[in-house]
């Protein structure tokens, strides 16, 4: 019997990539997508659904309270509709994982609160997708670009120190990461699905670009950017780094859990090297 799969946030990178995966994978025979911009339509959107994947965009409102309300509303509607499996796109609580040392990363905390709320609702099956840093961000209009220099080299700029470990994901692979939980809801019930092909240092990211493109690319801080390139506000980028420098973005067991997940995936995730190749040109 076919299942009805509802995707909230289908116009964004995560939701849209999941829709593409489902429509191109015969294992999942039917899919329904809904836009989260009209919360009053949520009950109708999830009616008859077996599985709901929900992702919200903090940056639409830049308000943790607003995002939390949206995420909770989707979860409430799904539970009321009798949805069997609810998958929430979450992030870790930096306040909790740093033992209170870092408490003001709003866009992490709002998603973490929805995760905790979802656990109280009594779904038969839940799972929580934690995506790493998008490879697509390297070409995002909202972030400092890979910048060629007059001497023929280039810089890969960001605010974090070069030894920081960053889980990297080609977000178009999201379906690959979720497939094991969709096939085995019981086995993944209540668990986090860590989405990353590997954990790289910022220096390793730049070194890979050098190897693939043949042009010397070095990692650089935002302070080294030419003034004309602009940047994201540094506070939005720097604030998580004290927490992440404690260890893996996914926690101390992150690397082992990534390895375990990869072993259960039918399709290998895209590596950073593969992404650099397919996303050429860079300069």
Structure overview:
The chain has 283 residues and is of the alpha/beta class. It has two domains: 1-131, 3-Layer(aba) Sandwich (Rossmann fold), CATH 3.40.50.720; 133-170 and 197-252 and 270-283, UDP-galactose 4-epimerase, domain 1, CATH 3.90.25. The protein is built from eleven helices and twelve strands. It has helices at residues 13-23, 42-46, 64-80, 94-97, 106-119, 174-183, 202-213, 234-238, 241-244, 254-264, 272-278; strands at residues 5-8, 31-34, 51-54, 85-90, 125-131, 133-134, 147-148, 154-158, 165-169, 191-195, 198-201, 217-221. It has a six-stranded parallel beta sheet, with helices on both faces. Strands 6-9-11 form a three-stranded mixed beta sheet. A hairpin with a 5-residue loop joins strand 7 and strand 8 (154-158). Helix 3 packs parallel to helix 5 and helix 7 (202-213) packs across helix 11 (272-278). It starts with a strand and ends in a 5-residue tail after the last helix. The mean pLDDT is 84. InterPro entries: NAD(P)-bd_dom_sf, NmrA-like, NmrA-like_oxidored. This is NmrA-like domain-containing protein. Belongs to the NmrA-type oxidoreductase family.
Short description:
Helix content is 35%, strand content 19%. The protein is α/β, with parallel strands linked by helices and 283 residues long. The chain has two domains: 131 residues, 3-Layer(aba) Sandwich (Rossmann fold); 108 residues, UDP-galactose 4-epimerase, domain 1.
